[in-house]
Amino acid sequence: MKNVWMYAILFLCLILSVSLLQLPGLHGLGIAAVTWCLVMIGLLRGSRTALIAGIVIGLVQDISYGSFLGESALGYALAGYAAGYIRSLVLRDSLVLAVFVTGVCTELFDWVTYLTSRFFGADVILVHAAIQESSRSALSTMALCVVFYIPFYRAFAKKPRIRYDDDSVEA
After folding, report:
1. Distance in Å from the first CA to the final CA of the chain
2. Helix axes 71-88, 95-119, angle to 10 degrees
3. How far apart are CA 137 and CA 31, in angstroms?
4. How many other C-beta atoms lie within 10 A of the C-beta of residue 108?
5. Can you tell me the distance from the alpha carbon of 17 to that of 141, in angstroms, rounded to the nearest whole number?
6. Which of 25, 81, 89, 140 could make an SS bond with 51 (beta carbons 3.0 to 4.6 A apart)?
7. Is the dihedral of CA 137, 140, 146, 151 positive or negative?
8. Distance between CA 75 and CA 50 in Å, rounded?
9. Is the full-model pTM beyond 0.90?
10. Are 39 and 83 a contacting pair, CB within 8 Å?
11. Rounded to whole angstroms, how far apart are CA atoms 145 and 103?
12. Three-point CA angle 45, 47, 50, nearest 5°
């Protein structure tokens, strides 16, 4: 049931990204709420779940708002998979890890979408502007991670199962 709620929050982040976060005062921040939610899914549920969630949400975004099909799906899939993979290399969950992975995956998503749109000739933004936009987006998304990490972690982290026949549990 928690996976259903995570996907619902992912779609809510997409709705917020294309509506509320496009207002003139908030658009300049470049908050990537969908990328943050995918990173949290990757950290808490693993790379396979985040990869599938990234493909699904990316295709929904590309069909609804994209310039061509597959651009956001590829970027979100890579960002989600990278978050899950980085989490598999580390022993403990922490806020510092989540902030670091959020920054890395936001940069990864921004650069994958920039390079694919540049390759297909859909984007005419210069590299200097792309660097400014991606760094602004990464920093603001990292700030979002600092604010919402603990509630998201408490709601969706897998609880370890306690077995009563285990020798490590003392009576």
Report:
1. 32
2. 150
3. 5
4. 20
5. 12
6. 81
7. negative
8. 12
9. no
10. yes
11. 9
12. 70
- Burial call 26-51: b when 16+ CB within 10 Å, e when fewer: eeeebbbbbbbbbbbbbbbbbbebbb
Give the span between the Cα atoms of 33 and 47, in whole angstroms.
18
SS3 at position 162 = coil
Distance of alpha carbon 125 from alpha carbon 15, whole angstroms: 25
* Per-residue burial over 130-169, b = 16 or more CB atoms within 10 Å of its CB, e = otherwise: beeebeebbebbbebbeeebeebbeebeeeeeeeeeeeee
Q: In angstroms, rounded to a whole number, what is the distance separating the alpha carbons of residues 57 and 53? A: 6
The pLDDT score that the predictor gives to residue 77 is: 96
Looking up tokens 């890579």 gives 78
pLDDT of residue 54: 95
- The Cα 169–Cα 3 span in angstroms is 29
Q: For 21-126, where are the alpha helices, taking DSSP H only?
A: 24-27, 33-45, 47-65, 71-88, 95-119
Question: Over the chain (171 residues), what is each successive 10-residue block's mean pLDDT?
Answer: 86 89 80 93 92 95 86 94 94 91 95 90 82 92 94 84 65 51
